[in-house]
Amino acid sequence: MRPDRISKIPILIHTMDNYAPYWNTWFKLFKKYTSNTGPIYFLTERRSPDFKDDVFHIKSGEGEWGYRLRKGLEQINSDLVFYMQEDNWAYAPFEFKQGYLDKFNELQMQSLRFHACAFDSIHYEKVEGNLYKYSQRSPYLMGHHMGLWDKEFFLSNVLDHETPWMSEIQGTPRWFNINHRIYQYDIHWYWSVARRGIIQPEGLKILNDENITDFDTTPIKQASI
Fold for domain 6-209? Predict the structure, then answer.
């Protein structure tokens, strides 16, 4: 099934049970700052989120990052899917605009990301306005920032044994020699707030700005996402 409206496209939130302390804050901020959203699929290993009645809760079982992601994608009946992780915390408004899907279709994109462009580490070619295309051999062709994906294209580069870091570093060269169409809108609306289970300064700032006092900042042991 290929949705014709952006508000029909599933949003897959990929997490692991160790990261449960991040879930409520992710949900609170996402609901506060986003609009015109499609159905939210919250993918855990076994544990249920507190807000399970407000999302489609799906489970992968235990396994490496790539295995769990594949199991989640296989449970979603849509040719297009938004992908996001639970430590991506919104801090500014973001609307899921129909124009984004129209541009995705117009340029026959395979991936369209929505995040502040990393001009120091990713090679882009400007398309128009704040829209950029990844160069043929850019770093992070395989990247996990929030984005709209052709699910088949995404799955073609998700290997069961890979960690998220392996996926980005080893998965990127696998696309060097194909005619990929990966784009990004330079939009500042969320931060990736954790690194290997440790809350980063950006996350602490969001907690302070939002007056969130019940978040447990204890480092998460043996985190793999």
Answer: Spore Coat Polysaccharide Biosynthesis Protein SpsA; Chain A (3.90.550)
Decide: residue 23, CB within 10 A, 0-12 exposed, 13-18 middle, 19+ buried: buried
**What is the structure's pLDDT at 221?**
74
User: Which pLDDT score is estimated for 222?
Assistant: 57
pLDDT of residue 15: 97
C-alpha–C-alpha distance, residues 171 and 159, integer Å: 9
Distance CA 142, CA 174 (A): 9
In three-state form (DSSP H/G/I as H, E/B as E, the rest C), the secondary structure along 128-191 is: ECCEEEECCCCCCCCCCCCEEEEHHHHHCCCCCCCCHHHHHHHHHHHHCCCCCCEEEEECCCEE
Domain boundaries, the chain: 6-209
Other Cβ atoms closer than 10 A to 205: 13
For residue 122, the 8-state DSSP code is S
CA distances from residue 224 to 16, 67, 218 in whole angstroms, order as listed: 8, 12, 16
List residues bridging with 12 in a β-sheet: 41, 83
Q: Which residue has the tokens 């699929």?
A: 41
Task: Count the Cβ atoms, other than its own, within 10 Å of residue 29.
Answer: 20
Hey, how many other C-beta atoms are within 10 angstroms of the C-beta on 209?
9
Q: Render pLDDT for 15-30 as a digit per residue (tens, 0 to 9).
A: 999 999 999 999 999 9
**Is the overall model pTM greater than 0.85, yes or no?**
yes
Pairing of strands 124-128, 131-134: antiparallel
The CA distance from 131 to 148, in Å, is: 14
